[in-house]
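Pasting as-is:
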Amino acid sequence: MAENYIPFFVSGTPRLEVFYGKAKKDYKGCILCIPGICHGAWCFENFLADFPESGYDCYALSLRGHAGSEGYDHLDDYGLSDFVDDVKRCIEFCKSKECAYPMRSTPFLLGHSMGGAVVQKYIGDYADTVSGAILFAPATAPKMNIVKTLFDTFVFHKNLHIAANKASGKKISDEDIRNSAFFDGRVSFRNAQKYNTLLQRESRKITQKDLFRPYTHNYIVNIPILVIGSYADSYFPEKSLEHTAKFYGCSTNDTRKQLKIVPDLCHDMMLDEKGWKESANAVSAFMENNP
């Protein structure tokens, strides 16, 4: 993975880890990727290599308390507002002279899973600072249903329960991680071992409170929006994607406000070993159609 990106930090408190991949052909724009529950910037390793091949600078941010960013000791205190502040700080820093790898244009903002809730909250207040938003296997708008989530996790779906245990900080075997709702068996055992060491527990404020309240009260945003996910996603399948798309006026036949459902990818679409490229191609096409 090391050859695909350059690591740097957003200065300030807490200091934030960012990975950067520079466009390798005629420059088209840039994208900032925001991870979901238990993840850090590392989960976008494929995108950090792929988007530059398509002419896009790619940035990936580790939210406070995650991966190489500061603040882990206070993780349970952090909520969506704190993570939105991280995104805002990152964009401002990357547009400043202080950044060694500055953004050359206004970024597209991609949020995976919980990161999709972060992006929804962000564009509700700061839509004018981004070129567009990609809600990538996103947390369901306007909020998650606590009764359905608890039922699915502890009664209906073992793989969701495994992922919930990881988020709470319990020790999980490599094989259980491979079969968890993050991956549904669509990564190799070797990669499952690697990801098990990188995945971490999540903020209790996020998992017990913020995801079950409206992320934002502003869904009328005048920027291009792509809602993308998979039928096979154990977390947020087709009905969830369609529900989120309605809030933003997205449909399958609109290239500016678009709903794209791809077949047979796990929740961590960007790491799905058989199909991640399909999700990357859909995001690249969306950005090219909305320069």
